[in-house]
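Reopening this one. Same input as before:
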Amino acid sequence: MAEIIVRQARAEDAEAIARLWTELVEYHSALDATLPKASPLGAVQYARRTEDQMRNPSARVLVAEDTDNHRLVGYVMGVVVDLMPDIFTQEPSGFLADIYVAADYRQAGVGRALVNALADWFRERGLHFFEWHVAAQNQVGIDFWHAMNGRQVMIRMRSEL
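Same output, byte for byte:
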C-alpha cells in the first residue's frame, strides 16, 4: 500500500471530503435503514459546512491522503465543546463529529492515524477527553472504538411512533 499522510484539510479538499461523507452516509444506511439518508444537496451543503469548520478556531478537519495518487482516502472532523455549562459542572471536551476511511484503505491504520492526530489537537487545547457517536449496528466501528480504548458512556435509544 502507498504511503498515507495525515494533514490538516484545505479549502480545495472540501468536495473530496463531501464525497467521502456521501460514502459514510451510504455505509450507515446499508447497516440500518432508519439512519438518515443524504438529501439531494447534502454533499454540497456538507462541503460548505466543512469549509466553515476549517475556518473555525474551535474545530479541526484532518484528511488522510494517499501520496502516490494524491487521493483523499479518509477524514475526521472534531470540535471543542462545552455542553450546557450553565447547568452542569463540566470541562470543555472534544467531540469527534465525523470520521470515515474509504473501504479499500481500512484495516491499514488510517483510522487510527486520523484519530490520534485529532486527539493530539485536542490535547494541545488542554482537553482531557473527547467523545463521539457510533451507530448501534456498526459492529466494525464499535470494535474500532474499543480498540482505541473507547468506552460506552451513554446509550442513545429510539422508539418509533
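So the earlier flakiness isn't reproducible anymore. For the record, The chain has a mean pLDDT of 94.
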